[in-house]
Specification:
By secondary structure, the protein is α+β, with helices and mostly antiparallel strands. The chain contains 10 helices and 8 strands. The longest helix has 21 residues. The radius of gyration is 22 Å and the shape is globular. This is Helix-turn-helix domain-containing protein.
Length: 274
């Protein structure tokens, strides 16, 4: 994608939470692009010509001329228990030359299932916050957040070509590791996050990526530490601690094994080259 200053604009953005039935149907198209992320409960949306169930973690993508239909209605009864009706979502209507170029780069499915990570939710929140800002607004901030969100959507799409099943679960595990590598999590924490057993969690990750969960976590921590050694003035003991290592002795040993020199030697070598 070109990096010229092509226009990119958020027209409206918000968060909706429905506890009563809701229905919208636009056969003439939306007139803009739409990203809608289901965060809570369920709904139904028109996907490739038919209405499909939309659950938390489902991201909907519509172009300006796409027919759009969304239904939110009470869930069916299970026995004598009546479940409350609820549906929450972030939605962003947007457009511009940069967006046209981004959209036309590849064929995009209308619905993809993605992990509800704090990083992704944070992008939606920031765009909504900027749209609501009354004092000292700056449209460029929304512009930049939107571009990041679009590119992050592409990355999620390329990393998760299958929206359900084992591959999707393995990618959720991978994202958890990347977001929590700086803390000392356990396999039980990872398994709880994806709501499965430790043994299944370990097997799925190794089967999908060819590396164990803890080995991948080590790789992420070492890369994190390497960046901090080069670009921050942190003492090496603090680098180890903030990169998820329990103690400096272990960090020193695995760092030397990975990069062929101690953390101190690595910092000195890189500083000489800068």
């Amino acid at each position: 994608m070109q990096t010229t200053d092509l226009s990119c604009q958020v027209f409206t953005a918000g968060f909706s939470f429905h506890r009563t039935p809701f229905h919208v149907h636009r056969t003439e198209g939306l007139g803009s692009y739409l990203l809608r992320l289901q965060t809570d409960g369920t709904s139904e949306a028109l996907v490739d010509g038919k209405m499909e169930r939309v659950e938390a973690g489902d991201l909907l993508l519509y172009g300006p001329h796409d027919t759009y239909e969304l239904k939110i209605f009470p869930p069916s009864l299970t026995g004598s228990e009546e479940r409350p009706m609820e549906s929450g979502d972030y939605h962003i209507f947007f457009g511009g030359e940069w967006i046209d170029q981004w959209w036309n780069q590849r064929k995009r499915p209308t619905k993809i299932s993605i992990p509800l990570s704090e990083g992704l939710l944070g992008l939606f929140r920031q765009i909504v916050i900027e749209q609501r800002r009354i004092s000292n607004p700056d449209p460029r901030i929304s512009d930049y957040y939107l571009r990041i969100l679009c590119l992050e959507t592409d990355r999620l799409l390329s990393e998760q070509p299958i929206s359900s099943g084992k591959t999707f679960l393995a990618h959720r595990i991978k994202q958890y590791i990347e977001e929590n590598a700086s803390s000392l999590f356990k396999l039980e924490d990872v398994a709880a996050y994806v709501d499965t057993s430790v043994s299944r969690c370990v097997h799925l990750f190794k089967e999908t990526f060819g590396i164990s969960i803890m080995q991948y976590a080590l790789e992420v921590r070492l890369d994190m530490a390497k960046e901090r050694i080069v670009f921050s003035p942190m003492p090496l003991e603090q680098v180890a601690e903030t990169s998820g290592f329990a103690n400096y002795t272990y960090f020193h040993r695995v760092f030397r094994s990975k990069f062929g020199m101690s953390p101190k030697e690595f910092r000195h070598t890189r500083q000489e080259k800068m």
